[in-house]
Amino acid sequence: MERTLSIIKPDAVAKNIIGQIYSRFEEAGFKIVASKMIHLDNYLAGGFYAVHKNRPFYGELIEFMTSGPVMVQVLEGENVVVRHREIMGTTNPKEADSGTIRADFAKSLDENAVHGSDSLENAAIEIEYFFGKDGVFPRTR
Ligand code: CMP
């Protein structure tokens, strides 16, 4: 069974739609096997987005991701990395298919409501970054 890392970003937490987004995960058949709210600081957000350090949008990305609390969760399911990206919609909400989380809840490329790991390999790295080796609770029922 695959796992992926999901983040509900500060814009969506501020809009009070954590539950609506969790419902979409559950409707898709994903299990939430770890979850916590964190207010990222520059160090934690910078470490998470280190791969984007030289991109022009990096400064704004860190500023936004540290602007308020986020919900971080691990989702488990078959083919969950790809399927989670499908239900999130494209990175730019203006191009996202209708019915996706970003089309329905996000307003811009920066404030795009959710993050999801882009590969199985990165999912493992991102899950360990936030939850360590023992912070995920397998659900067998
Ligand atoms: P996320 O999946 O969290 O990964 C990096 C984030 O940078 C991305 O979602 C966007 O919210 C944000 N971002 C801002 N500008 C861009 C851009 N031009 N290309 C990709 N991501 C961008």
UniProtKB/TrEMBL annotation:
UniProt organism field: Ruthia magnifica subsp. Calyptogena magnifica
Assembly mode: Homotetramer.
Subcellular localization(s) per the UniProt record: Cytoplasm
Major location (coarse): cytoplasm
Protein name per Swiss-Prot or TrEMBL: Nucleoside diphosphate kinase
Reactions catalysed: a 2'-deoxyribonucleoside 5'-diphosphate + ATP = a 2'-deoxyribonucleoside 5'-triphosphate + ADP; a ribonucleoside 5'-diphosphate + ATP = a ribonucleoside 5'-triphosphate + ADP
GO molecular function: ATP binding; metal ion binding; nucleoside diphosphate kinase activity
Keyword GTP-binding on entry: no
